[in-house]
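Dear colleague,

Thank you for sharing your sequence with our group. We've completed the structure prediction you requested, and as agreed, I am returning the results in plain text so they can be pasted directly into your records. Please verify that the sequence below matches your submission; if there's any discrepancy, let me know and we will rerun it promptly.
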Amino acid sequence: MTIIAGHPFLTDFQTTQLINRLNTTTDLAITALSSQQVYIFSKDLAEHDYKKAIDLLNHGDDVAMQQAQDGQLQVMVSPRFGTISPWASKATDIFNNCDVNIDRVERVVVYTLTASKPLPAKLPHDIEMMLYDRMTQSLFYDLAKAQHLFDDQEPARLNHIDVMGAGKDALVEANTKFGFALSAQDIDYLTNAYVNELKRNPTDVELMMFAQANSEHCRHKIFNAEWTIDGDTQPKSLFGMIKNTFQKNPNDILSAYKDNAAVVKGFDGLRFYPLLNSENNHLEYGFHQEAIDILMKVETHNHPTAIAPYSGAATGSGGEIRDEGATGRGGKPKAGLAGFHVSHLQLPDMPEAWEQSGKVSTEAYGKPERMASALQIMTEAPLGSANFSNEFGRPNLVGYFRSFQLDTSAAQDGSEMRGYHKPIMIAGGYGNIKRNLVEKNPIQPGDLLIVLGGPAMQIGLGGGAASSVDSGELDEGLDFASVQRDNAEMERRCQEVIDRCWAMAKDGNDTNPIVSIHDVGAGGLSNAMPELVNDHELGAVLNLRKVPSLEHGMSPMAIWSNEAQERYVLAIRPESAELFDSICDRERCPYAILGEATEVRELVVDDPLLNTKGDAQPVDMPMQVLLGGTPKMQRAFKRTEPNLRPLTLDSVNLTQAVKDVLRHPTVASKSFLISIGDRSITGMIVRDQYVGRYQVPVADCAVTASALVALDGQPMTGEAMSMGERTPVALINPSASARLAVAEAITNIAGANIAKLSDITLSANWMAATGEDKEDQALYEGVMAVGEALCPALGIAIPVGKDSLSMRANWTDEAGNKSVVSPMSLVITAFAAVQNVSKTLTPELTAGETAFYRLDLSKGQFRLGGSILAQTLSQLGDSCPDLDNPQDLINFFNFIQQANNQGLIAAYHDIGDGGLLATVAEMQFTSRQGVKLVLDDANLLGQLFAEELGAVIQVKPENVEALLAVAEQTGASDLLSLIGQSTDEDSLLIQTASQTLTFDRAELETEWSKVSYHITKGRDNPECVEQAFALIGDKNHQGLIAQANYDLNQTIEAPYINSRSVQPKVAILREQGVNGHVEMGAGFTRAGFDAVDVHMSDLLKGRVNLRDFDGLVACGGFSYGDVLGAGSGWAKSIMFHDELRMQFVRFFTRPETFSLGVCNGCQMMSQLKDLIPGAENFPRFVANKSARFEARTVNVKIERTKSVLLKGMQDSILPIAVAHGEGYATLSDTDIAGMAAHGQIAMRYVDSQGAPTEHYPLNPNGSPQGVTGICTTDGRVTLMMPHPERNLMAYNHSWKPEEWDQDGAWMRMFRNARAFLR
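Please find the predicted structure tokens below.
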């Protein structure tokens, strides 16, 4: 074992925050705290490898190990013993790819505490919990104990359960011991199957496999159950009612209910991807005209997020992404979403009156110890979801966040606490798929069965079962066992393999080796592999020891059923084995052939290691027993009516209500969970959450382009998605809540340009605490309202969805047994094909004289039950909003689409949480445009705060007459009313006949931003948070500006396109984990290059040589997951290989070449400065000042620079996308002055006056003097942190001037490259 001391783990501000938290919680009187990273290798390193390790881990610095002095206490935190961390997996890859062969390296953090009084030898439990996450980490006080990280046990044995001797009792005992979560019905079924049919004892492997495969989580027994209500058997199951929507309206749906995701028809377009040129062995990019169909899926990951928020949300997003990739014979994930329901946040610096629910405050009511608090979840889970999506390379473009907790008991004594102690974590999205790959091919006997992706690990055991029971029901140790870990970089490698395969499926020449593919999720291989072959009515013979595993001590049950993430199972024909191996080898993606499909419908899993005597066969089970014979569930309830109380509103202060509603977490700014997520990756984003020149997160829906360029002469088509949910209303009327969820998703997506209502397709995610009559009734009524009535009336289908029916948290404390039960919760996601992405309506207000109209589907009822206003008063109410007539929603949708097509609507925002008040305020925040609302005195609270369905539209005076005519034509006239007008003041006026209230816009936006402010202040660098918060009231801040000193559409490359017999070649270089290469290739292809996909493995293995290229581009992403410093592993893999290093040297010294490094490529190439002429003063790019991944649209100024790529763009100020965690340039003022004098400063962040800035988030990483782009002294090598390749078209800009309507601001850079080569 070798130990190497490293640099500090925490930043200065993080250290201060931790000291403050420790001293707030305890009387230990901590005066100082230091943290050090310590790297521990499983085996001793040779001397020459040790020196390389110092270079890789500490950038060559020799760092001393900090020793505890007298009175100090050292505490060590490591990955949980018995697990392998994602960090270790990536770091080990770096070492091995740099020719330092190691088995494993782990990172331990050593905290050294100093106090003003003696410290105990062991910290109190509460303090330990502040230093580590017990679900994923271990804590100890002696560094020598770190050796247990590498403990490798002998392979654990197979267990048999003695049903032949002890009968059913043996299964009951095993059920408790192993946490199978088998129902009484399951136990009876298995007892009969083994005792009477198979006549043998089951193995623990078989029982765990059965438990996962037949869990509620995986088999949806309740949705497929037969229901009896008030003694009457119902004709349809819940699933039958959902299927009714598809039977009535199949529309353009190509696949429903039978695959990992649903698929609907998209548009013909030009997809961009590489194919192999067999003449030169290059993977050459090109545009391919084909049908670009749309796949969609939305999942939940509630239980894992409750017990380990970061990893739970991360693996939730990762699992849903795998569903998309494993659709048909290979899909391509494109855009994602994330949503969260939690109980009250209880922000320590912002206590709220509504957190005192009845006689018992929600804080005093407590929570189960093993579950995270709402604030912990909303601090950590969004980071997990965002970081996984960022690293994989899929943008999160839409979502929601609701905080709800309420004591609904008549006595208000805490006896009926409703809320989300068991949170909802929603992960979903859509992607694209080729038309000829929508259906899986039949697997044939003899086909090879493969597991693709990462190794098996002792994690995530029994997660499917754990997610199927109420939180708190399982033994705590079983909760630990179900925790998963994430490695998005591995999943990216798998997706690259899938991408290479699906690209080979051309009509008439389908060489895609994938026959059928399935993701590995709940239940691990034990669920995925049987499903893969069972879909084709086959069996399988598999070798357990072929499953890649990093932990030799795993039992057969753990190997077969663990939920190690980032894996897929697939079938290929034997003749495709060599091709598939070559693809995986190039992508460095592990895989293993486990066995073959068999005609006999039997699942046989052999274990040649342990089954040497024939008495330890892990699995030998008929498929019918495993998946086909369990009895149908029966459910019954008797209908009851809820006991509801009307709202008491007599004492409401209107001014205070306005502020309370805007400040409520459900209404307030969601910036804290949006800016951390990349929203520009793929280069096809049209509408992300941030709207307008002030970049306010209020978009109604997400919109992407079908492809990177449009078909000639046609508008760019695309896809849109939105969400809808109104779960507190279910406590008043479950059917209304369900209808509102569907309708809100539609009013949100109506801002996109959609041909007809039936082009919208829905995903339905149902959550409930089933098992009590009233909860079963709520679920049944909600499903019936949507499946049997509303969706058929709207002509819309629900071909995909999920259920999670254990939404209850139970625990016991000194006060007795406690429970928090969620309302019936339907979360709807709407997806649609978009006719013209440029016609997307947003809430951004237009300057000048305009009118504001309200579309109100309640026609003046303004019911306040379940509203945010009611929640701020700790009330529920008895009369709630509803969709009273589906025709009104149809008319509403048709009106918005026709008015949009005629250009009559200047701005659009739907009415949701917070009612009219929140809608108008959010529109105002986008542009700081004044608004005056003119309302009636009668039911003013209802007019302002009722969350009735509808929208607010802004209309220019010259369009009013035409707008009213469209309303008449579409039957929407009775929904439409004039409610106000624009003003010149930066304020909101509310005027009635008897009063006028004036609110300063900055005052309202400050209230609206407080939740984000407080969460980020405790999570990120407080200095950055304060700077961002200050911009709200800064009158000088004008938001984004655009001053292009060139014609965006000028094709300056045109004179040179035919100057050569072959077009110049550009190497689009990527390392494992890079994800921004496709859009980069598109930019250069459009500019007249032959763009070639070049993986680092191509260069290392000699398949490709840089001498064949004129340009070299290192792309953005997360090479090796940014472990050991962003870009460092990638750079070292070049520097540590002599032959490859010289190949780069020769390329950089050729005077006719150019090079570009963007984001991760910039970070990498800056570390190659010793190889690049004129780059001696290049900085390193290190962690952002905020210590957070930053995804923003910001302004940059092109300096007077020598960069050949920025020629003719000097002095322009342009909006551009940024998305990085390590962009701070290590430059002094002297360095910058010297580089500027030589024309090497290429680009700076600037404020809205055009001055270089370090103000956050205008400068998202804090780089000195705003420097974010540099070049060599001759201008041939340009590096930049922002992403020009993501703004190739005008509609790609999150904000742009209206006159930009063709190319984006950054296409010029690619044209400059082609013009440079002549």
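Summary note from our side: The chain has a mean pLDDT of 94.

Kind regards,
the structure core
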